[in-house]
Design goal:
This protein is an alpha+beta fold and 693 residues long. It folds into 3 domains: 4-236, no CATH class; 434-504, no CATH class; 511-692, no CATH class. 19% of the residues lie in helices and 30% in strands. It is built from 13 helices and 39 strands. It has a 6-stranded mixed β-sheet with strand order 12-13-14-17-16-15. Strands 3, 4, 6, 7 and 8 form a 5-stranded antiparallel β-sheet that branches. Strands 1-2-5 form a 3-stranded antiparallel β-sheet, covered by helices on one side. A hairpin with a 3-residue loop joins strand 10 (289-293) and strand 11 (297-300). Helix 2 packs across helix 3. The protein starts with a helix and ends with a strand. 33% of the residues are buried. Residues 14-20, 41-51, 207-216, 242-251 and 388-428 have low confidence and may be disordered.
Amino acid sequence: MKNSKCTNAFASLMAASFAGAIALSACSNDTISTDRIEGPVSEDSTADSSKDTSKAEYKTYDVAIAIQRLKFKDETAILYELDESFDLTGREFTEKKETDSTFLFEGIKLRSPYAFIKISGKVQSTYYGDGYTSSVIPFVTIVANLDKQPIMPSQLTTIEGELLIQNLKKGVPYDSALALTRESIQKAYLLKDKVNSKEFADFFECYFNYTGTWHDSTFTKEGEWKNDSVKAMTALRHRELNDMQIKNGCFEKSIDFFGDAFKLGPCGKDNIGEIKKNELPYGAIKNQHLYCSQDSGWLEMPLSYNDTVGWEPGHDGEIRKGDYLKTSYYIYDSLYGGWVDFFDPDTAKGPCVTSNKNEIKSTPQGYYYCNPVRDTTRIVNVWSFIYVIETALKEEKLCNSKNVILTVLPDSGTIQFCDSNATRDTTRELSLLEQERQVTQCGTSDTLVRGSIDTTKWYFCTGGELNNAGELERTIGRICKKGNEGYAQVNYSLYYCNGFSWKLSADSMIVDSFIDARDSSTYMTIGIDSLIWMSHNLRFKTDSSWCYADTTVDCETYGRLYRREDNIKLKKDICPEGWRLPTLTEWENTAAFGRSWYPKEPDFKIFGSTSGWIQGSLDPHGKDLIGFNAYPAGSRNANGNFSNITESTQFCTAEEDNDGNPTFFMLTRQNKEGFLAKTSRKAMSCSIRCVKE
C-alpha cells in the first residue's frame, strides 16, 4: 500500500485481527474521478443492463482483509461492486491469498463505498478434528461500507447480508440498517440478553468453529427462518456443543432456542423434569421424547423410555419388542414394577425376572443363570453364562477378577461363587413354585388349584404347567391367556384380558346417573373397586356453602364449597338419600386402588379431570384414568377468601384427628402422591363427594 493513510489503516487492521478471527480495512485517496471505469465484469452478472456504468463518479480504494485465528487452504476473496441502490453492477475483483495472513485489493475503482465481499476456502475446524473441510465453502460474506473503519467480518456478517441489503434498499441509513438487522437475528435465536456487537459476532464465530456448519440462506428477506427444517437443524448443532460440554459462553444466552425450534416450549425452573414428544421429523431425535433438564435444556429420554412409552403393565415375564427402533426387547418384571431391558429373549431359556432371580437353565451351549442387574448405570434383565465344572473343587482357578458365578454342580443344587478369590458353597433352595410343580400334576384343562405345600397359595394349571395365580385371577376364576380375551366384572370395576394379563378397563366402566330429589340436580356415578362414587362434586345449596368467588358460573362444573363445621359435623344428611360421606379409609383405599393399576402415573393424572385445571402450565390436565373425575375446585378459608381454583381441590370427610382437627382428602399437582389426607382448621371449606350406601 503506497498511500501513507492506507499504510496506517493497514497497521491498525493487523492489530484488530489479532483480537478476532478476521478483520477488514479499506481506505481511499479521497479524490473523485469521472473517467471511464475499467474493471473485470462477471460473466453471469445480474446487474441492470439499462444503467450506463461506462462513466461515473468513483473513488479509488485499497482494501485489506487480515485472517489470524482461522486457517484456510485454497482460499479466494471476491469483491463485488454495489451501486447506490445496493444492486450488483456486474463488476467484481478476485484475489488469491497473497501472504499467510492477508488479502489485498489495491487501487480498485468503485462507484460507491458499498461492496459485497465473499471469502471461500477449505477451513480448519474443531468439528473435523482440527482438519480442513472436505470442499471449498464460502466462509464469510459481508455487505461492507468501505468508508466505515475497521470492519470485523464473521459468521454474523454472513447471515445478516441479505437482510441488511433489504433494509438498506428501504432507505434506512447504514448504521441503523445494521442495528435493525442484528435485532432481527437476535430475536430469531432467542438470545436472552441484549448483547454487544462483539459478543454477537463471537456467538456465530464459535458456532462455525465447533460445528463446521455454514449459514447459507438461513433467513427470509423478512427476517424469519427460511423453514422449520433449517431452524431445527441449526438448533441441533447448537445443542451438540452442550453435549460436548464446551463452556465458551457463546450458547448459554440461547438455551430456549432448541425448545422453540422443535416446538417443545421453554425449559426452565418451573418445568424441570417435564417430558414432551418431538413431533417434527428432523434429525436424529424425530418422534423421540425429551425431558427438561436443569442445566442443559431439552435432552432425549433413554431409548428404553421411547421404546415403551404408553405401554400398560404386562404379566410377569411378558416379552415385547420396543415400539421406537423395534430392535430391542423388554420384559415385564412385576416385582420391579415395570418394563425392563431384556438382553437375551431366548425362548429356550424363558423369561428372566426378579421372581426367578438366580434360576439356572441348561442349554446345549452350557448353563445360564437369571441375572437382573440393578445399579446406578443400568436396569436390565439378562441370562448370564456359567462356566461349568463337572467335578467340584478339582480346578485350582475357580474365580476371576469379576467375582461372578463360575461353577455349578449339575443336579446337586450347589453353586460355586467367587468371593475375594476364594470359593464358597451356597445351596440354592428351590422356589415355592418349583417345589409345588414337583408334587402337583397338571392336566391339559385350565384349573384353579390350592397349593399342597403352602395351602394359602393358589395356582393355575394351564397347558399342563403350574403357574402362580394372582388375587384378581383367583377372584375372576380364570387365567388370562391367548384365547381367553374379554371382560370380567369384580365388585364395581371392569377388567379386560388382552391375551397376556388382566388389566383395569379404561374404555369400559360401570357408570350410571341419579337425580337428587332435594333440588333435582343430576349426578353421574362411577364404580371403583368396591364402591360406587358420585363422579361430580355436590351442588346442593345450604346456609354455609358457596360457589367459588360467589359466582354461580363455576358451580355447575366445580360444585359448592361447604364449611365443614356447619355442614359435616352437625348435618348427617348432607348427601342425597341413599348416599353418605366416605370414610377416611375408603378414601385411602380408592387412592391405593388407582395407584396399583397406574404405578408410574402421578396421582394428579390418575384421578384428575381432563379439563378445568390451570391453563398456564404445560400438559395442564389430568387423564381421569379410573373415572373419578376430580375437578380443581379450590377452597375458601375462615376469612371468606377463595383460592387455588384450577390448581387443587380438597374433599370433606366426617373424621377428625386426635386433636379434633378435621381431615380432608386433597388432590394437587405438586407431587407424585398428591392424593392424600390432610388436616386443617374447622372453619375451612371443602368439596363433597358421596358414596352409595
